[in-house]
Structures
1.
Amino acid sequence: MSPPTPGELPLERKVALLSGRSYTHTEAIDEAALPAITLLDGPNGLRRPGDSTEHIDPRRALPATCFPPAVAVASSWDAGVTARVGAAVGREARAFGAAVSLGPGVNIKRSPLCGRNFEYYSEDPLLAGVLAAAHVRALQEQGPGASVKHFAANNQETDRKNVSADVDERTLREIYLAAFERVVREARPATVMASYNRINGVHACENHWLLTEVLRDEWGFTGAVISDWGAVGDRVAALTAGLDLSMPGPDEDGDAEIVAAVRSGALDPAVVDRAAARVAALTRRAAPATGDADLDAHHELAVELAADSAVLLRNERNVLPLDGVRTVAVIGEFAAAPRFQGGGSGNVRATRVDAALDAMRTLAAARNATVAYAPGFSTDGGGDPAALRDEAVRAARAADVAVVFAGLPEAAEWEGTDRESLSLPDEQVELIRATAAAARRTVVVLSNGAVVSLEGWHDEVDAIVEGWLLGQGGGRALADILFGVVNPSGRLAETVPLRLQDHPSFLNFPGEQGHVRYGEGVLVGYRYFETAEVPVRYPFGHGLSYTAFETRDLRAVPTGPDTAEVSVTVANTGARTGKHVVQVYVATGAGPVRRPLRELRAFTKVELRPGESTTVEFALDRRAFAYYDVVLGAWAVAPGAYTVQIGENASTVVAESAVTLTGDLRDLPLSLDSPLADWLTHPAVGPDVVRELAAGRSEETVRQGMRTPEFRMMSSMPIRKFVKYHARGVSAGTLERLLERHGLGRGARG
Ligand code: BGC
């Protein structure tokens, strides 16, 4: 006899599927042949429990490869890089018997202070979404499932389990949901993880609009929605909203509440059946641990991907690479004891860790150069800061180049808390300045999981490499970049502001009294800095190379009312092979809403040898031109002028080409209560209204009138009143007939 299907199980057994058995496991339902599955934290490496399936003690965790975290791989601007991370984590998940890797995190970096920014990709939803989709696809090709998190608007750690992110719908759709949408539609993740916070007052885990109407009905998600760990307060409400699996477990009381709700008729049993079926489907990903991951190969991969991710921010007098240098003073504790990952659930017990100092010694030796080392500062409070600094300054003075490894201490970047400032620790700033004053040339290498301020020392140093947190191979990758074994190709996935006060989130982060107001709306990150012309230290998309690139022959041609095709040629005009990121932005003022000055709409990374050029093509889909129209409750492309721009970064445009789109806004709702201006500018009805108002005169007379201050005074008047008082020749009946003719008879706008 075949085992029962999940739907045939007794109610209690169905409900047992809906909460975990432990911190990392679901419940096995043996009689239905449904195994327990293991869910382990990712996404840049697996956090493997040691001898317990309960809360994971990092000291007893088992080793896994720590690949570069999201903050780093985002700076690669290369979906090939995130795909390779995803595939490798997938292979390790299979080897270690995990059915689900809990990641990637695609939350938008709304503020540089968010304590989990190291786990997130970008301030831009396209970049985050494209990179995450590649990770998920590659991971799932290996068998295990992904869990895209934290859905949604979980952009801070302060009060994270309770705070309500108060966000208008256009901003949610265009900024905070867009990366999730892309991943769900394009990569079909096995699970989505609902976040701790509330959204406009409703907990994400109990948010029917979010989990059912948007995620399933609109985006077509068919997998299981799981809760963030301990996020569910009311199991019945969560289940009703569309949450399937509450983690961790056990949660016998919650299970009993669900059973009681079904028995009392308060909960439709079909809701339980649906959720149980989704969790049962997830158990198909269970597989015995194969134990066969090639950890040596994965370490090499971790080095390679880290080298693709670091960003060369500044390189005055071409101090880098360290060609022909005889003596190098390596300064800073992070050179010997790398800071390579953030703290909290994403923390991985690395299989090994490469220190930049060792790798630099090896590379220097092969070039007959010498390396001296001074720790310069201590992150554990040991040592006298002045003595450490003096020792470093002596080493710097004696060398051709000083390379200072600075950054944030591990405790500064930890899940559960946000930072309070962008500053590096004071003793490190003093160390950098003292070194720069003494050394012939100074290079600073940064290790930090989120943006730090470069002010107070930036202009005193020759070069800055933003190494972010690069995973266990980061030390070697940095050495390869410093010595030119690798040509840096990272680009900033987030803006480096001059001051925290300049940041669009500044006045509304992290909120107060249980609410955080996303007052900057869609003007997040560079969208704000560029629109408001607020100067920054380094714009989104910035990154230097040891070679030079030229952009030419941009062509942008509409391919329909709301789409276009773009092609552009890039050439390597320098002397080294290098990788270049082609960044395509769209700028427009079209439509009834405020548009950011420009928005990233496509990108790709190309590798070119000296003298080589290539032509890249992009098909810009409807979304590349659209805004979310809250009146229509839909995405819309307004008719009008659009400029396709190739940006060296978000603030430097190197080529642009105009396109005119007819758009797809013809069915805008309209009623007699809509303002006169909406009628006159309506793409379908507008010309007819002008004709009616002209009443035999030339239409140009009406159009001229529309440009007068008197007209502007009346333009917000509902047309019903306008015709009553100012255009007696046009009746309400005429207007109604116009609406009928254009199929807008039932449209309404207050
Ligand atoms: C984190 C999640 C993580 C989960 C399981 C939570 O605290 O927010 O990102 O996947 O723990 O460890």
2.
Amino acid sequence: MSKENIHQRIIELRSALEDHNYRYYHSSQPVISDLEFDMLMKDLEKLETENPEFFDPNSPTQRVGSDLNKEFEQVRHQYSMLSLSNSYSEEELRDFDQKIRKLTDQKFEYVCELKYDGTSISLRYKNGLLEKAITRGDGTFGDDVTANVRTIRSIPLNLKGIGFLGEFEIRGEILLPFSEFERINNEREELGEQLFANVRNAASGTLKSQKSLVVAERNLDAYFYYLLGENLPEDGHLENLEAARKWGFKISPDTEKCQNMDEVIAFIRKWNTKRFELPVATDGIVIKVNSLSLQQYLGTTAKSPRWAIAYKYKAEQASTILQSVAFQVGRTGAVTPVANLEPVLLAGTTVKRASLHNADIIRNLDLHFGDTVFVEKGGEIIPKITGADPNFRHPMAQPVEFITDCPECGTALIRKEGEAAHYCPNEDGCPPQIKGKMEHFIGRKAMNIDGLGTETIDLLYNEGLIRNIADLYDLRKEQISRLERLGDKSADRILKSLEVSRQVPFEKVLFALGIRFVGETVAKILAHRLINIENIELASLEELTNIDEIGGRIAESVQAYFSKPENIQLVERLKQNGLQMRLDEASLANRSEKLKGLSIIISGTFEKNSRDDLKKMIEQNGGKNVSSISNNTSYLLAGNNIGPSKLEKAKKLKIPIISEEDFQKMID
Ligand code: IVH
């Protein structure tokens, strides 16, 4: 194929894939199978790899995301991102209406929209191509999250149709559908990671993830509700959104025009419960004046437009009976009280349990068994109890008291100064804590043992086959294959995966040990600074705290871990089993102290190295890579397209700015 033909084919494939993508994510009416879609994608990927001159950041192949660790640049919003004033009653809405009618005699219409509960985003398009995606930030400056936004499949990278402006912005809400939220939290639970409290946090946390690969995996969605630019196609807000829908944006189908406040209020009532049937979270209704010229005439206050208002639904409440309280011991030993309730219908689902959080909350609520309690469902996973009604209390009702001993192992619970939670201190003898350690060890970010999950760990533990992480390496095939729901195949897979884990790099092994406060980053720092497990075992408190980013709390925890003979023995057994207990040769070879004591910030895009590589080079040479500029920053390593605010700040603080070449010279 000639270059010209190849280019033509690439263009055809991109357009076909965008079209299928649109059918799938917007109208849910795909015309080809997933497999066919994947095949077309593979064809395109192949052509693009073989012909890098035709690279295009807006190609559908780029939606898979990359694993590069990028900091976000701060970008100034072209139009500042205002928020809305809130209202909670019909009366407040009628006041809002009256205020507008005082300012104009003109006849006008309202548009009512659902108020989506996610995280807001502003997209800038130039000549039909997505140019930038910026978070709200402080309303004036926001984070450039373009790389992450590109992975959201319902957001068009190339606009369709005709009539779009050369340059415009569109704003909307990035959302995590409930089904995805559940899937992600289940996955996080298995990995022993902290759960997202609600869909809003999950959406904004995901959007701010440093890895677009993670964003791509999470299937975020987005609805758009505000078009901005010069010479918009229509004077009507709704009409403009309809135009935007034709260009490929996802616009809510549930938006309606209303002629007056009575119609607005009817719309609000209609969605009061209907909104729970939607796949995404909503927390109210937004009411906007439709005419842009009237919007402009009404203007804005410093914080919000005068032509729009949000009506927020009250969190739904129900009352029910508190039957009992269960105390659950988590993997970290933290004890959580959970209320068992007489089942009650709340916001579309039957509620049987509610979180009670900790002893203080139980005491403040003055809860008694058999109480009539109020439950409320915010966006949280499990509802909470907001109060008890003492009028319905039985005179002999017993107060709910926090337990004193661990329900799993009987050890007396402790509560640390200043902490709300009670803990079971029997780290090495309390079953959920032992199992928790093993689950952490096998997790994807730790030893990544395929085939082993929470359930298998439970089975192996209950059968008495494993008591600690080192026991995993003594497992024999017949011990695994005879277990319920497992067989020869699963046993082979688990053993193979354990075998492969012997090559997992030292820093991950260190993380996998589950030493308190030694997360992924700390494990990496310790591994690179102290090189092998013996040095870490023997390091004094001073040696540890002398390492940048290792504070007293971490250092003490490391020492406490290695002060226990059973842990030393455990590590020894893992070493005997062939696990990596020292930094690999390649990392060792590239080490130097040339940047010792220097803090370097990386900004922009580079020609020779990726930002991840540069970060590694800084660390390998004893320097520290920092993410925000301060007086303590030694250098700004600047590439192309560096954010103007960063540059400005560096100049102001007189921080030397170096290029990729200068940097290379420093370490050569
Ligand atoms: S309009 C100047 N419409 O609510 C008006 N906002 O409290 C800009 N939101 O920051 C906002 N759904 O994140 C608008 N249909 C909708 C919305 C909506 C959700 C969010 C948005 C905004 C916040 C304001």
